[in-house]
Amino acid sequence: MTVLTTPTQIEGARLLTLRAMLKLELLGMHRSKGRTAYAILKSMGYKGSRAEVLAQMDEVRNNLTKGITA
């Protein structure tokens, strides 16, 4: 079992979760309450359409996994 203890690890997990949520939004699913992942990511400074933001999140994911394996 992995335990996330540092703020960097927690923020990385949050970004990965938002990326997964955004992928589901692109497939047509949505949350019943609260803001969408797209709206949350836009407020964090990401720009572009949902597909463009997903591409940016893919880069973030790749950078996070490089840091884990290195």
Describe this structure as you would to a colleague:
The protein has helices at 7-26, 37-43, 50-69. Helix 1 packs across helix 2 (37-43) and helix 1 packs antiparallel against helix 3 (50-69). It is mainly α.
Q: Secondary structure elements and their pairing?
A:
Elements: H1 7-26, H2 37-43, H3 50-69
Helix pairs in contact: 1-2, 1-3
**H-E order:** HHH
pLDDT averaged residue by residue: 90
How much strand?
under 5%
State the shape.
Answer: globular
Report the biggest beta sheet as strand number plus sense, adding barrel if it closes.
none
Number of strands: 0
Q: In angstroms, what separates the terminal alpha carbons?
A: 20 Å
As residue ranges, the low-confidence spans are none
User: How many helices?
Assistant: 3
Taking all Cα atoms into account, the compactness measure Rg is 13 Å
Q: In terms of structural class, how would the helical and strand content be classed?
A: mainly alpha
* Proportion of helical residues: 55-70%
Offer a quick outline of the entry:
With 70 residues, the protein is mainly α. It is 67% helix and 0% strand.
What are the key terms here?
70 residues, mainly alpha, 3 helices, 67% helix
